[in-house]
Design goal:
Layout: H1 6-25, H2 29-45, H3 52-75, H4 79-110, H5 126-141, H6 150-158, H7 160-163, H8 171-179, H9 188-208, H10 213-220, H11 228-259, H12 277-283, H13 286-297, H14 307-325, H15 329-350, H16 357-376, H17 380-390, E1 397-399, H18 406-414, E2 418-420, H19 431-446, H20 450-457, H21 463-477
Parallel strand pairs: 1-2
Helix pairs in contact: 1-2, 2-6, 3-4, 3-5, 3-6, 4-5, 9-11, 9-20, 9-21, 10-11, 11-16, 11-17, 11-19, 13-14, 14-15, 15-16, 16-17
């Protein structure tokens, strides 16, 4: 079930909200929690019913192993073995559903043996809820997670706002909220905040992000060579699309959580305003960055075992972070590029160098945009062709549709730009598309992020905030004829 669908917004959500708050009003807290668990499992099974058994197995297995690890710690032996076994079972689920074909194909390729992919349906959100529970088992091993109510744990894993595409929530963020009685008291301010953020996130997704879908697909999924301006338009359009798509989902997740008095952590903090790659990864997909840092980079040794070891740890972390996104070498290349960028950035800082903030921002934004090409391209060949176009290798062509004055035409030609007749260039990137891309990037770069804006304007709720949210919601509904999945559903 998609957040951006009529059945979710006008059937599932109102009914779940009503039943939850009805149980809360009757002081039947266990029923209120059970209501959210059942609703969340229904939400998950709506897409492919049999996979509800997979998430149920995952919940039961990890809750049980958490208790086993706790008892082993109390006895003083066996906890580490239990942790390793539990983590291996979780990873084996991802390995089978998400990476089996990828690894089998590449291993057999080395052996010069052909391979036909098995038809494996990738369960939605498996990377998110599996990583979430791996973190839980590790927290149990370190004594940070102790015995608690099973239904609370089931809700921690399955809570529908963050189930499909994150953020990757942590035990110490969620369980205390389920144990807090204030969670089960109607809070008008939380409802107002939730509806406002839900409307903003919905607008980001269906109005802004989805508007880039066709031009991005035309450039990345096409077969013809792309010229300088078209390749840059495609790269920048995807840079905007993935931001508004994923941050829109995250805003909706936070807003939906607030409707049930549950605080979900922010996953984006204006990442495209970053003035360094290090800063970018503190702002982009914060929950994944934090997970990789706490459960992979630091256990590998972090930056405390010398410069070369730090470089190796960074590269391993980012390569695996790239692979986490999908079973394809393109994601590994994307992660590797960011690993190289991070290593250069850390070396730059260590040497005491600095740049003016605007120059640092420009380099960071261009590096991020450059790397997104690998992330989106369907193949290495297509990515390299787009990179070639971005470097001018496929020609620098500009339609005379954009150049009317003779003086401007001669100036462009003096720079090596070839002016071609209108209609010769068939790829997207007309005046409307360029203007919309410019608008989207200005919103990202100069406006406060949606969570900041909503919190600021809801200190004392004003009628104009409700009007803005209502307008965004109604406009979004008018775009539901082109309903599409969130990009991160496939990860």
């Amino acid at each position: 079930m998609l957040f951006n669908s009529f059945e979710f917004l006008f059937c599932f959500l109102p009914l779940t909200w009503f039943l939850f708050h009805l149980a809360c009003s009757k002081k039947i807290i266990d029923v209120a929690v059970a209501c959210l668990v059942v609703a969340s499992l229904f939400f998950y099974s709506y897409w492919n019913p049999p996979f509800v058994f997979l998430i149920l197995f995952s919940i039961l297995f990890n809750y049980s192993f958490g208790r086993i690890i706790e008892r082993s710690l109390d006895k003083g032996s066996g906890a580490r073995v239990c942790l390793i076994f539990g983590v291996m079972i979780n990873l084996s689920l991802i390995a089978y559903f998400k990476y089996f074909n990828f690894f089998a194909e590449n291993i057999l390729l080395l052996m010069n043996v052909s391979w036909t992919d098995w038809e494996l349906f990738l369960p939605l959100g498996i990377s998110f809820f599996t990583f979430q529970q791996i973190a839980y088992l590790i927290d149990c091993y370190h004594g940070k997670a102790r015995e608690h109510n099973f239904m609370h744990y089931a809700l921690f894993v399955s809570f529908f706002p963050q189930l499909i595409a994150g953020p990757i929530v942590r035990y110490d963020e969620m369980i205390p909220q389920f144990e807090n009685l204030k969670t089960y008291v109607f809070n008008r301010k939380n409802v107002f905040f939730g509806l406002t953020l839900l409307s903003i996130g919905l607008f980001k997704k269906v109005v802004i992000a989805d508007s880039f879908s066709l031009p991005v697909s035309a450039i990345f999924d096409g077969s013809q060579d792309v010229t300088f301006f078209d390749s840059w338009f495609g790269a920048l359009a995807y840079t905007a699309q993935i931001y508004f798509d994923f941050s829109g989902y995250s805003d909706m997740a936070i807003g939906l959580g607030s409707l049930f008095n549950i605080k979900i952590s922010i996953n984006f903090n204006s990442p495209y305003k970053s003035s360094s790659i290090i800063d970018f990864w503190r702002r982009w997909h914060i929950s994944l960055s934090t997970f990789l840092r706490d459960y992979l980079y630091i256990p590998l040794g972090g930056g405390h075992k010398g410069a070369w070891r730090k470089t190796g740890n960074l590269m391993v972390t980012m390569l695996l972070g790239g692979l986490w996104h999908g079973a394809a070498w393109m994601f590994v290349c994307w992660g590797g590029l960011h690993g190289i960028f991070l290593c250069i950035n850390h070396l730059w800082k260590k040497r005491g160098f600095s740049l003016p903030k605007m120059i640092g921002w420009a380099i960071t934004f261009l590096a991020v945009t450059f790397a997104w090409v690998f992330f989106r391209a369907p193949s290495c060949e297509r990515a390299l062709d787009i990179y070639k176009g971005m470097m001018g290798g496929n020609g620098v062509l500009l339609s005379q549709h954009y150049v009317h004055q003779e003086g401007l035409k001669h100036f462009c030609e003096s720079l090596g730009v070839h002016i071609v007749p209108s209609g010769v260039m068939t790829l997207p990137g007309g005046k409307k598309e360029i203007a919309f891309l410019f608008f989207a990037l200005m919103v990202v770069l100069f406006l406060p992020n949606s969570v900041e804006w909503t919190k600021k304007h809801l200190q004392q709720p004003k009628i104009y905030v409700a009007l803005i949210a209502g307008c965004l919601f109604v406009i979004s509904l008018s775009f539901f004829h082109r309903v599409s999945e969130f990009l991160y559903f496939q990860f």
